[in-house]
């Protein structure tokens, strides 16, 4: 009995990409050159002003626990960011600093869900979301989404799949693995309808800073009852620091505070002090240049992959992912990804990690490596998959 | 409905000491001088070699995600620590790096517990433990412990309170809030008996580096099925960095890895690189000096409080806490703590935070401030509580 893990563990699938990543590392140790298009984090280092702020804080001995909800100064700075960037006024008291968006998702779902209640989410989608729900003994209600809705939940889909026990609807805009946005009017309509059913919408805006084209408003403008998840990981280039935040209705903050006190004690103190520099004009300039670099990469990779024969049905407007139908080449995306890795040293993520909606027919490309490396990757793919193209 | 938190939140009590801490900060802002004896973290800064390692890692751009179970080098270093300090050989594969002992406790309980299963723990005890269990919809089985067992579970108590659904027994040695140890023979007997019932023992050794007197062996020497929790927070002076670890039976590691991948992605990367320097001889020298300083503080504070009239029934051999019966002064320890704060500017933690076993009659003193400040605190307590003593 002792060595049998709890059933909640059985319901959680390990990420298939981890096996590929390990294989890739092994090949590299053997001297092979691998083009990494599987990795879900920016290749850019943490911006220098943020690094400097961290170094200063550490030297000053700012290394003790903070309040569980985060440093007041950081909550204020995040409130200022919503004001400056989105023109939305969010009181700092509704903002909770967390160990990454990961910590924010655990707190948000933890405060909302009774065991057995339903969590509606798009399939394909960010894999951890359904696993947080499994962890909390909630019921995952995946909705297969297609290109016609930009791989997003729509009001019609939400209404169609709503069940008596549905408590939470999870959205992400831009989304992982598709990079697609939810149109603002649709977002508003979903939030409005779900809240009228007595449910809560969680919107993951972790990729909101990485949008190519017109910037949509934050979901916080739609309602004071929506929960918004965000993070310093992706746009701000701070993955390994483990720092993010959530914005929740005021009534939920005491419960979230209690949970954070117990589960985390607090988020990393050096990371919090570092993040204070993330909103400085100098940092935002650097981030804007990086956003442009990502856009350039997308503008190269998207047509190049289409030309090879990958069917990318929706032009993604954000994040750093391309979600491609690969049925022209395979009906087993995992074997396909493994073959590409072994044969031509190109690492990509098989669809299996994102759900059960035709995963064998899909792969995800991440443009989290330089344009030159992406070009090399495309060259290899071209040669292997479309030699006469 | 939307703003009603889940029932699991209702079962979690907020820490009473937080209200006192906020009051203390307010008094300080009004210019009052407060002696802090309520704080559960070392006043010492992070040791310089650890700070240097962090600064170097950050400058080198070591700020990306690591494997969910932690950097191999750190897992190896922790294995080396067990070998050097305890003469126990623990394969690095059984070690998982976590966001503090907090993260380790969530993973350990998460991998073991089905909803409804029982978790036996000592009352008084570390408050988060029962709240982790509540969070996982497990049943908390608190066992009132008294001075006769050093405020620890004994084999007799475990046997007496064992129930058909008991899955986990949680121990801590030294314990919070009492600073007491479990005798090695007793520890071994408990582990042996619980494992024969098919249960698992979790031993929290977060204060194991802070023992005054002979160093007992780690619980890892007793069994390969025990789970040991530890952290860089207390002994290593790294609270705000959020970095700790657990050691688990090999069979549980894949499940723990899956959970960590989903709940945390990884522990803080700068903190992991910093922690690599925690086991260097130079760091250990500093930590040994600090351990001696804590011992000196205990040796001052313990008799001084007894003289004032606090009944400290067991001489604590570790951590930085004294757990005192205060019935000579009050039968409402929370009101008592508030009065001491307001009237003489001495902050302590009321028993309420540690359980339901006569909490009104107990308070916890933390010697996490300098000897000079402790002396000032004792002077004020003496004047207020034993003016003729
Ligand atoms: C959609 C989405 N949400 C949340 C996260 C978690 O990121 P973090 O915990 O680093 O903030 C990720 C990471 O890949 C993600 O893709
Ligand atoms: C007994 C015990 N275990 C675990 C923890 C958690 O510490 P951390 O998460 O900082 O490692 C604490 C903190 O006070 C503690 O007292």
Automatic annotation (TrEMBL), chains A, B:
Pfam families: Aminotran_1_2. GO terms for molecular function: pyridoxal phosphate binding; transaminase activity. Signal peptide: none annotated. Its cofactor is pyridoxal 5'-phosphate. Its EC number is 2.6.1.-. GO terms for biological process: amino acid metabolic process. SUPFAM superfamilies: PLP-dependent transferases. CDD domains: AAT_like (cd00609). InterPro entries: Aminotransferase_I/II_large, AspAT/PAT-like, NHTrfase_class1_PyrdxlP-BS, PyrdxlP-dep_Trfase, PyrdxlP-dep_Trfase_major. It comes from the Bacteria. Residues 33-381 form the Aminotransferase class I/classII large domain. Keywords: Aminotransferase, Pyridoxal phosphate, Transferase. It is an enzyme of class 2 (transferase). Belongs to the class-I pyridoxal-phosphate-dependent aminotransferase family. NCBIfam families: PRK07337.1, PRK08960.1. PANTHER family: AMINOTRANSFERASE, ASPARTATE AMINOTRANSFERASE. This is Aminotransferase. It comes from Thiohalophilus thiocyanatoxydans.
């Amino acid at each position: 009995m002792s060595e049998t893990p709890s059933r909640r563990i059985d319901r959680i699938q390990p990420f298939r990409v981890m096996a590929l990543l390990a294989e890739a590392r092994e090949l590299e140790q053997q001297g092979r050159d691998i083009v990494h298009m599987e990795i879900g984090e920016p290749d850019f280092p943490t911006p220098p002003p943020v690094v400097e702020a961290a170094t200063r804080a550490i030297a000053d001995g700012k290394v003790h626990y903070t309040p569980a909800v985060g440093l007041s100064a950081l909550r204020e700075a995040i409130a200022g960011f919503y004001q400056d960037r989105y023109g939305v006024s969010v009181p700092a008291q509704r903002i909770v600093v967390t160990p990454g968006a990961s910590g924010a998702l655990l707190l948000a779902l933890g405060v909302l869900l009774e065991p057995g209640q339903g969590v509606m989410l798009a399939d394909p989608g960010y894999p951890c979301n359904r696993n947080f729900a499994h962890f909390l003994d909630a019921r995952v209600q995946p909705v297969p989404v297609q290109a016609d809705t930009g791989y997003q939940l729509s009001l019609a889909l939400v209404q169609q799949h709503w069940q008596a026990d549905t408590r939470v609807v999870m959205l992400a805009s831009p989304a992982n693995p598709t990079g697609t946005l939810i149109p603002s009017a649709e977002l508003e309509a979903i939030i409005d309808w779900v809240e009228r059913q007595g449910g809560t919408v969680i919107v993951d805006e972790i990729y909101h800073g990485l949008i190519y084209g017109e910037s949509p408003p934050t979901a916080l403008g739609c309602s004071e009852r929506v929960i918004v998840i965000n993070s310093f990981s992706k746009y701000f280039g701070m993955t390994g620091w483990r720092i993010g935040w959530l914005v929740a209705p005021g009534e939920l903050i005491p419960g979230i505070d209690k949970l954070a006190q117990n589960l985390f004690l607090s988020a990393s103190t050096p990371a919090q002090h570092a993040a204070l520099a993330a909103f400085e004009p100098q940092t935002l300039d650097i981030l804007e240049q990086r956003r442009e670099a990502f856009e350039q990469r997308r503008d190269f990779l998207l047509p190049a992959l289409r030309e090879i024969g990958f069917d990318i049905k929706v032009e993604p407007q954000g994040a750093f992912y391309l979600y491609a139908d690969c049925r022209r080449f395979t009906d087993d995306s995992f074997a396909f990804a493994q073959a590409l890795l072994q044969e031509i040293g190109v690492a990509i993520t098989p669809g299996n990690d994102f759900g059960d909606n035709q995963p064998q027919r899909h792969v995800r490309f991440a443009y989290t490596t330089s344009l030159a490396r992406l070009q090399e990757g495309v060259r290899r793919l071209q040669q292997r998959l479309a030699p006469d193209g």
